[in-house]
Amino acid sequence: MATGPIFSIITPSTGKRPLALAQAIESVHTAMLHAGLDASAVEMLVGYDGVQGPEVCDYPFLRFMNLPAQGNFGNGIRRILLRVAKGTRIIFLDDDNTLAPEAFVIFGRYPDAELVIARIDVSKAFANGYLPEHVEGRELFRPTNVDPLCMCLSRDLVQNRCAGWEIYEGYESDYRNLVRYYRRARSVAITDDVVGVYDAGRGMDRGGMNRRQQDIESKREIS
Predict the structure, then answer these.
(1) Which of 41-45, 107-111, 126-130 bottoms out in mean pLDDT, i.e. has the lowest?
(2) Whole-angstrom Cα distance, residue 84 to residue 90?
(3) What's the mean pLDDT when you consider all of the chain?
(4) What is the pLDDT of residue 2?
(5) 3-state secondary structure the chain
(6) Above 50 in pLDDT, residue 168?
């Protein structure tokens, strides 16, 4: 009989967004309560990239890891965390994003799908409200239309058949890894239910914003 958690949450962090990270963690806790899950069913792995990161929250489902510096937008950290993840299903949650309260309930509706693609709220970052967008005549799975936060994947697919998270240069890693998973998945479920908020923590930690977030905040302050 299988033992261990159902969900592993993979969260790379530079340690510069403690407030946003705390919000991300609280969103996981809220989603667990909403789904009736406890620490035996969920693990959240926070990997700090070359820094001694703060343990911003204290929950039994949390594990903080101070890892050797990797750089490259958290890609190396994701690769390391996937190697120690014990859950049968994988969710990628960056430290400035949040899960929706219904996320585990939504993903739990598709126990036999190796890859579930759901929608996320991207209105804090982009002109369109949600990803992925359905456009007639175009593939749903295309560059800039999917994000790791959209997905829940089986660990067998990610770690055993796709060798984890491959290291490519910069933001290109996200799409290239996701498209590998998508092409090798034996079963895919697609839902319009919303499972997360992209950039939910933007601006909470002034020193932790990337260039795109800084530009958005500057324009917002001017207006």
Answers:
(1) 126-130
(2) 12
(3) 92
(4) 54
(5) CCCCCCEEEEEEECCCCHHHHHHHHHHHHHHHHHHCCCCCCEEEEEEEECCCCCCCCCCCCEEEEEECCCCHHHHHHHHHHHHHCCCCEEEECCCCCEECCCHHHHHHCCCCCCEEEEEEECCCCCCCCEECCCCCCCCCCCCCCCCHHHEEEEHHHHHHHCCCCCCCCCCHHHHHHHHHHHHHCCCEEEEEEEEEECCCCCCCCHHHCCHHHHHHHHHHHHC
(6) yes
Q: Which residue do the tokens 């993840």 mark?
A: 85
pLDDT by residue (tens digit) across 43-73? 999 999 999 999 999 999 999 999 999 887 8
Q: Which amino acid is at 214?
A: Q
Peptide bond into 101 cis (omega under 30): no
Neighbours of 134 (CB within 10 A): 11
Backbone angles phi, psi at 171, to 5 degrees: -65, -15
